[in-house]
């Protein structure tokens, strides 16, 4: 059983260079009790790529999750900005 949910969705956009990328990570548990870190990335609106990492211990998955999140923030990825709708 995972101690807590680990999920992140970040984007990196730059209209001047036609850049619109996303990066998603999530830690889940497999049917066999292993920790599973799933990463997905690509151009916003496209299917993109995916990679799955399996770990015997949740702590190992969390360590990689945090390292990758730090790297993405350093490269300019930020949480998606939501627009406010008038009248809400």
From TrEMBL:
Q: Which Pfam families match?
A: WGR
- The residues the entry assigns to the signal sequence are none
Record domain WGR: where = 1-88
InterPro entries tied to this protein = WGR_dom_sf, WGR_domain, YehF/YfeS-like_WGR
Out of the domains of life, which is the source?
A: Bacteria
Output the PROSITE patterns linked to this UniProt entry: WGR
- What's this protein's name? WGR domain-containing protein
Record organism: Aliirhizobium smilacinae
């Amino acid at each position: 059983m995972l101690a807590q949910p680990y999920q992140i969705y970040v984007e990196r956009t730059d209209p001047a260079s036609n850049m619109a990328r996303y990066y998603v990570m999530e830690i889940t548990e497999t049917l066999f009790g292993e920790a599973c870190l799933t990463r997905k990335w690509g151009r916003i609106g496209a299917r993109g790529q995916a990679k799955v990492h399996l770990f015997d211990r949740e702590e190992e998955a969390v360590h990689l999750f945090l390292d990758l999140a730090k790297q993405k923030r350093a490269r300019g990825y930020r949480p998606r900005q939501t627009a406010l709708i008038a009248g809400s």
